[in-house]
Amino acid sequence: MSHPSPASPLAAPTPPAPAGSLKPPRSSSSTRGILIKIALLSIIDAIAVFGLFMLFLQESWIPFAIVLAVTVLVNWIYLTPGWLPAKYLTPGLLFLAVFQIFVVVYSGYIAFTNYGDGRNGTKDDAISTILLTAQERVPDSPTYRVTVLEQFGEYFFLVTDPEGEVSLGSADSPLERITDFGTDSTGRADSVPGFTTLGFADLLGNQRAITDLAVQVSDDPNDGALRTPDGSNAYLYLSSLSYDAATDTFVDRQGAVYRDGGDGAFVNDSGRELIPGWTITVGFDNFIKAFTTENIRGPLISVTIWTFAFAILSVATTFALGLFLAIVFNKPNMRGKKAYRLIMILPYAFPGFLSGLVWLGLFNEDFGYINQVLFGGAAIPWLNDPWLAKFSVLLVNLWLGFPYMFLICTGALQSIPEELTEAATVDGAQPWAVFRLIKFPLLLVSVAPLLISSFAFNFNNFNIIYMLTGGGPRDVSAGVDAGATDILITLVYKVAFGEGTGRDYGLASAFAILIFFIVATVSIISFRQTKALEELN
Amino acid sequence: MKVTSRSLMMTGAMAAATAIVLSGCAAAEPEAPMFEGSLTVWVDADRAGVLEDIAAQFEEERGVTVELVTKDFGAIRDDFITQAPTGNGPDIIVGAHDWLGKLVQNGVVAPLELGDKASEFQEVAITAMSYEGQNYGLPYSVENIAMLRNVDLAADVPATFDDLIAAGEASGAEYPFLVGLDPAAADPYHLYPLQASFGAPVFEITADGTYDPTALALGNEGGEAFAIQLAEWGAAGILNTNISGDIAREEFVAGKSPFFLTGPWNLPAIQEAGINYSIDPIPSAGGETASPFVGVQGFFISSRSENTLAANEFLVNYIGTEAVQTALYEVGGRAPALLTAFEAAKSNADVAAFGEVGANGNPMPNVPAMDVVWSDWGSTEVAIINGQGDPVELWRAMVESIQSKIDG
């Protein structure tokens, strides 16, 4: 549960003194200041130039343009006199852009793609990977010993076949028997006059060229080609697929044609897909899928209802308990108050996911502390019954969340002037009426925004659900992966990381956007209500 | 000027972060004329120690630096799938063979040609490392579960599972038989040998010994018979989903059961407790051989690696050697995949016994469709064991659900 703590009245930071009043007038800025400014700007520029250089080499033009623009902007802002607000705001705005806006825009973009298992990269990557895996070693083909030679920038295989025959070939010329060569002590041909023999270091320096090199054993490509994975042994490979860049199609040895099927994969006429595919933009497909696919829509509705129930009940129960305890502990003449308060803060101090795991053990039907000790060995299926599991989740969340509510209620109660109570008592009000008509409304004014943020937090309270029940128990007869305690965010996790159906980041991002709209709507409405509450007073 | 210089400093950090983030988006470096890079290997903490020595040796002999990046084993697969396409992934990862389908589906692993060296490894390891006829990994260990018996509680090796239960009950121990399950997901991996003994593998096994991911065999008559049997065991308390792996180990170590279906990873705790144990084949429950899943671990090369040649050399000629395989065995306790190293390791009776049981095993399916199976399979087993419905109906619903997910 919990913590938008900076907003809590206890932790409210004192506003910083206006910076301008402490600053000396700009005209008297010292030489030291200017030197520091120049030094820091040079460091930034040095880093930026290095980054630009790397990006230029990698021909990544869009990041290049962005880094260039940002660097120029930063220099301009800090070198131009004046522009004080920009000098303060720039670092923050840049952080905002990289760590917030970029992340949000990027997840939004993912929601409109088919990014997920098997659709993981670009089309070019997919084509090269398909070609790579299509290289099949001819069954039981022998191992050829090779030496890689170089002449005028072209690479050659000097091949010693298992019978000891020696031949030479390159990418353009098939293997041909030669007689003029030198051998090493093991009988492997290792040099030919006029050619340079590559040592291991040379091989490493040209790895891609050498591992990509295919030397045909004869003029007929169907006889296969030699390739070497390590620069010293070669095997006979046949490619099961060939790619034609002009028509953008793959053709296999049986003549079946695989075309770009339009959904990020090559498919043939009978519907067989080549793996891997690639990421494409699919528009609103993911959103449509969320609402039309039977397997998703059914659980989506019940999960949404439970998410609301979970978030509302979590806030309500923790607030009720927290407020009750705050009132009790607000009694001025109570003994040992500090010790009690300390104990009560403890659940708040533990990480939520750890508590989830501990409670998981406590709830074990046969061995857990709760059934064994508290209920005398009764086999209560705390986490295996759908309703009991919901109850258990709420109970654990109450345990985790009430200290926070206790803290903010204590703070809010103490800020209510005692005179109000006294005046009401003098007017003849009973304690309950004082609380209901005076204290509680005043309390709500300061606490309501925190309740709303607490609702938003619990709406996405992944830790507690994931660690305690994992969303279970599942209704196995329903045939979908959503369990009785799954909330929207755990459902998104299951879709994104594919516990059951393969990962689908696109669909998960679409869900995340839907969740954002739900939380935003609820928050806007609630904040409006809070404002009305404020005006009432 | 204090405030300005601080904000300048922030801007500096910012620009650096921007440059790093943005350059991260870019493609891999262009081909260098001479090799200046290094091999990046993702390993888990256990294996990193062993690889350090071999990496140093490789650097000395071959002039290529090997950078070992220690990662949580469970995170390696998913991080690799996400990072490899960006060009920032490692050259080599350590992994389990059942990741292979996912890795191939996402196009992030490159085929690895072992050549004649393939015959130097256990056959099951090579089968496990191949996908659709291509080999993708260099295996280094093989592991499987077996039946552990507390000799003091049960003197004889039971012939069938019924005999085992009878012996367990006759022993007077608290549990006739122990296996670690999970209240939410049971444990299809541990229960698989019993299921297999009813003649119900997950997928049909084709003539060449590989799985046919389109033909689900779970739903055959054997599968349904197993479901009925599960319900009986559940009702009789022989299987209990509240006994997790940890609890099962505790109870066996405490001498509360004569039989424990588990893998070599629990041996150290059992030895430490001084239990007089024996490692036996898993008795058949349904009449056919109770073959466990065999899990193979190994190393894979990234399809985006620019250092394929060095990576090949490192795997085949360094990690594939007896010394390294033996060293990896000594730290992890898992039987080596290389035959010569395995023969040497067999002088340890435990390794030999587990290896014998594994010889009857099937490699765990490595097809991507397997990912779809686990969730339904586990939760259905929970429901059946806990008597939450008619076992055959639940089993059929599970098969239908899995089939519809495979069909997409």
What is shown here, in short?
Chain A is an alpha+beta fold. Chain A is built from 18 helices and 15 strands.
Features:
heterodimer; A: 537 residues; alpha+beta; nine-stranded antiparallel beta sheet; 18 helices; B: 408 residues; alpha/beta; four-stranded mixed beta sheet; 16 helices; 15 strands; 16% strand
How can the largest sheet of chain B be summarized?
A: 7 strands, mixed
Radius of gyration of chain B: 24 Å
What is the typical, i.e. mean, pLDDT of chain B?
Answer: 86
Total helical segments of chain A: 18
What is the radius of gyration of chain A?
35 Å
Strand content of chain A: 5-15%
Main interface pair?
A-B, 94 and 93 residues
Number of helices of chain B: 16
Regarding quaternary structure, what we see is: heterodimer
What can you tell me about this protein's structure?
Chain A is of the alpha+beta class and 537 residues long. Chain A is built from 18 helices and 15 strands. In chain A, the strands form three sheets. In chain A, strands 1, 2, 3, 4, 5, 8, 9, 10 and 11 form a nine-stranded antiparallel β-sheet that branches. Chain A has a four-stranded antiparallel β-sheet with strand order 12-13-14-15, covered by helices on one side. Chain A has a two-stranded antiparallel ribbon with strand order 6-7. The model of chain A is unreliable at 1-25 (pLDDT under 50). Chain B has 408 residues and is of the alpha/beta class. Helix content of chain B is 46%, strand content 16%. Chain B has helices at 2-25, 45-62, 73-83, 100-105, 123-128, 161-170, 188-196, 221-236, 245-253, 267-272, 308-319, 322-332, 339-345, 349-358, 370-385, 391-407; strands spanning 38-43, 65-70, 92-96, 130-131, 134-135, 137-143, 146-150, 178-179, 203-205, 211-216, 259-262, 277-280, 293-301, 335-336, 362-363. In chain B, strands 1, 2, 3, 6, 13, 14 and 15 form a seven-stranded mixed β-sheet that branches. A four-stranded mixed β-sheet of chain B has the order 8-11-7-12. In chain B, strand 9 (203-205) and strand 10 (211-216) form a beta hairpin. Residues 1-17 and 19-34 of chain B have low confidence and may be disordered. Chains A and B meet through helix 2, helix 3, helix 4, helix 5 and strand 1 of A and helix 1, helix 3, helix 4, helix 11 and helix 15 of B.
